[in-house]
Amino acid sequence: MNFLTLVLCVVFVLLCCNLYCISSTRQIFPFGTMLTIVLNLIFAVLVLGPGIGAWLTNNDFSLLGKTVTLTGYIWSVFVMLFVSMHLLFRFLGFGAHKLQFLMPSTPILLSSNALAIPFFTACILASATVVYAWHHEQNIQVKRVNIVSSAVPVEADGTTIAQLSDVHFSATTGVPRAQAIADIIHQEQPDIIVSTGDLLDKGIDSPETIAEILRSLPARLGKFAVTGNHEYYTGIHKALRFTTDAGFTPLQGDNISFANKITLIGVDDISASHFPSGHTDDAKAIANAPADYFTILLKHRPIISPATLAKVNLQLSGHTHKGQFFPFTLLVKRIFPYTAGLYQLDEDTTIYTSQGTGTWGPPLRFLTDSEITIFTLHHAPQKNAPA
């Protein structure tokens, strides 16, 4: 399924959810045909809000575009939650009546309370979930991971690496998120900073200001980035220009080695194969890396290639967002086995998948975290362990 097909499917589902929402509301608050038509039009605009907002932002209506985009995203999540909860409560009420747990002599589905209670309960719980998810997403968690291995050279002992991933700077994720990242990085003072893809999206707001903030991030040995799929959706040339303006060195099949015997390798996301720029081959990029160095592969998607197992000590990836919003976490787990966190592949090879430093689409998280990951390398013949 390509990206356009996915978007069209989501829009169709949201339109169906809005129709259900209007139908459910009319059962509680009967209103005429004209108001129904008006509400359908308003809800349709809300569903298309992110697209309309992106167009407004690109045409110098930044504040209006951001407002429309954010409203559309929030409404879309609310209406999906409402429909799911409302259907669940109606089903439970129907089951309770059939089992004669509640009012066995009254047709519960036809009673006014049977309609009102699920409706208002779903409204309250959906609203509360959205508010919680909004608040939770604003708080970036610092995840600390110790990489303890005999493969880590003595010279690299104590080296720290900060991983950003899937920030998705856009109309809804802008300067405040950049400043929050900067505050954490200035406090941590890592030796190396890496971005494992999807640094920006279409309709990015205030790119110059964001790039200026990111340029100030301290990293003794440098800042490096690879492309994700959204760099290509945004426009690869625009994305790479923003990445370099932000002070990151793009690695596209390249490697860079440091005096402490660490090598960073970066490969493009597989989305590149659908664009004229092509796609960097993992095996070729890894083969060009020097031997006897602790090799770190930056790769957007948490997919393991045979070349990785043969030569890479640590792969840093993102892309999954850990599903971002439960229950999508369950679906993502089926698609990407290395969904989030640290996985030991063999004695000398580990992969870490970030949940993402930002969000895609709605700026909401439920049962997942926005994170910046701080890795500390230790030379010791021990297994990897969380800090």
Explain what you see.
This protein has 387 residues and is α/β, with parallel strands linked by helices. It is 45% helix and 17% strand. The protein contains twelve helices and 13 strands. It has helices spanning 3-28, 33-47, 49-58, 62-98, 112-138, 175-188, 207-215, 229-234, 236-245, 282-287, 306-311, 328-335; strands spanning 141-149, 160-164, 192-196, 222-226, 249-250, 255-257, 262-266, 294-298, 314-317, 341-346, 349-353, 371-379, 385-386. The protein has a seven-stranded mixed sheet, covered by helices on one side. The longest helix is centred in the N-terminal third of the chain and has 37 residues, at 62-98. The protein is elongated. The protein starts with a helix and ends with a strand. Mean pLDDT is 86; it is low at 99-110.
What does the secondary structure layout of this molecule look like, with pairings?
Elements: H1 3-28, H2 33-47, H3 49-58, H4 62-98, H5 112-138, E1 141-149, E2 160-164, H6 175-188, E3 192-196, H7 207-215, E4 222-226, H8 229-234, H9 236-245, E5 249-250, E6 255-257, E7 262-266, H10 282-287, E8 294-298, H11 306-311, E9 314-317, H12 328-335, E10 341-346, E11 349-353, E12 371-379, E13 385-386
Parallel strand pairs: 1-12, 2-3, 3-4, 4-5, 7-8, 8-9, 9-11
Antiparallel strand pairs: 1-13, 2-12, 6-7, 10-11
Helix pairs in contact: 1-2, 1-4, 1-5, 3-4, 4-5, 6-7
Looking at the structure, what is the overall shape? elongated
Q: Going across the major beta sheet, what is the strand order?
A: 5-4-3-2-12-1-13
Name the poorly predicted regions: 99-110
Radius of gyration: 24 Å
Average pLDDT confidence is 86
Number of DSSP-assigned strands: 13
The major sheet is characterized as: 7 strands, mixed
Class from secondary-structure proportions: alpha/beta
Q: Please count the helical segments.
A: 12
From the N-terminal CA to the C-terminal CA, the straight-line distance is 38 Å
- The H/E string reads HHHHHEEHEHEHHEEEHEHEHEEEE
Please give the share of residues in helix: 40-55%
Query: Could you tell me the strand content as a percent range?
Result: 15-25%
